[in-house]
Every structure is written in C-alpha cells, then in structure tokens.
Amino acid sequence: MNYLVTGTDTGVGKTFVTIGLINAARLAGIDCIGMKPIAAGDNNEDTRAIMAAQQGCEPEHLVNPFWYRTPVAPYTAAMIENRPVDLTAIRKAYEEIASRHRTVLVEGAGGFLVPILASYDFRDLAKELGLSVIVVAANRLGVINHTRLTVELIRNAGLECFAVILNHPPGPEELSQLTNQSVLEHLLKIPVLRVEKDQSDFSELVKQLAL
After folding, report:
1. Domains of the chain
2. Bridge partners, 103 (sequence order)
3. How far apart are CA 117 and CA 112, in angstroms?
4. Do 191 and 185 meet the contact criterion of CB atoms below 8 Å apart?
5. Rounded distance, CA 53 to CA 37, Å?
6. How far apart are CA 50 and CA 122, in angstroms?
7. Which end of the chain, N or C, is less surrounded by CB atoms within 10 Å?
8. Model confidence, pTM
C-alpha cells in the first residue's frame, strides 16, 4: 500500500516523520521509498533529506518532479514563477517509482487542501493515485479540532485515513499533550501514534503501521 503523508498545517513535521519512517522501514528490510512531488523553498531541503534517507536509490527528477524557489503554496509559487505544475509529469514519476518499490510515501506540501492548480489539490492527487492517507499533526493544544477537520475531509473524499501521527512540537510540554493521543484515538477510531521529541528510532511506528 502507498500513502500520502499530509499535515494539519505547515511546519508540523511531515518531512521529519516521512524520513523517520523511511529509515526505520529500510533498516527492517522493507522496500520503502519517499517522494515529494512538489517542493517550495530556496534550498529544497525536504527533497534532499528524503533523497539522503533512501541513499539516492531513485533520481531526484522522479523523487521531486517540481521545485519552486518561492516558499509559498505550490499554486501560488507556480503563478509567481510562471511555471504551472504538470500533473502528467507527477503521475508518471509516481508510477515509475511505485512499479519498483513495495511502499511509497508521497509527502504533500502543507495541508490536505493546499492547491496545486486552481481546481486541483492534494486531495485530488491522493484520489488519482489511489493513496491511503497518513496525517501528521503537532501534539499541542488545538490539535484535536485540526485533526478531526482533516480526517473528516479525507473520509468525505472517499479516501482511507490510515493513521494519525502526533509529532512533539518545540517548547515546554503542555497538559494537552498527555491526553491528545487517547482522545483522538477514541474519537477517530483509527491508530493515533505519538513521536516524542527525543525519538530518533521509528521502528515501533513502522511495526504498528505495518508498512
């Protein structure tokens, strides 16, 4: 099975989680690879980190078909740089990678409804590629509302929300961080996993997700 790794917002740790899952899966002998169809930002650090995690086993033009220097949403960056996203190129890159690997983690940009074209977003991409969805959220006050909204959108699109991964945000621990996991799991009826701030080994998450 292949997955879209999306977030409840930007900056919640999608790349950190994607890389952690790739590293742990590959150490366990699972042929898992990541791709970032669209990246935005001057240094393209997310793509470079994904490439490093999988030892460059696929070329960069397939892992990241589109890179924009402007650090904004893909649709906005495409307009600013006058270079629209070519969905056919993304589809072909994904199909080529997926044909050679057991599991593909497709990392989105920002949240589930971030636009790629005026009438096409990451929800549409997940539907077109037949991806289940892993939601990454920052484990802090407010995450219950943000996560439930995202999961509801996923389900209303007819897609499977496979799991939620709560990523520990920077800063001191809050009371809500002790209860968010159990409350979300009770409300959503899907696995809700937690990444601690000092956790570098994702092996337990890989086992629980059964990638």
Report:
1. 3-209 (3.40.50.300)
2. 32
3. 14
4. yes
5. 16
6. 19
7. N
8. 0.94
Pair of tokens at residue 160 = 């499977």
Task: Give the tokens for residue 77.
Answer: 């960056």
36 is catalytic: yes
Cα 3 to Cα 135: distance, rounded to the nearest angstrom = 10
Q: What is the pLDDT along the chain (211 residues), one digit of tens a residue?
A: 899 999 999 889 999 999 999 999 999 999 999 999 999 988 899 999 999 999 989 999 999 999 999 999 999 999 999 999 999 999 999 999 999 999 999 999 989 999 999 999 999 999 999 999 999 999 999 999 999 999 999 999 999 999 999 998 777 678 888 899 999 999 999 999 998 755 556 888 888 777 7
The single residue of 14, 36, 92, 189 carrying the catalytic annotation is: 36
In the sheet that 3-7 helps form, which strands lie side by side, from edge to edge?
32-35, 103-111, 3-7, 132-138, 161-167, 192-195
Q: How far apart are CA 132 and CA 197, in angstroms?
A: 26
* Cβ-based neighbours of 131, under 8 Å, separated by 6 or more: 2, 3, 4, 106, 125, 159
Q: Are 38 and 7 in contact (CB under 8 A)?
A: no
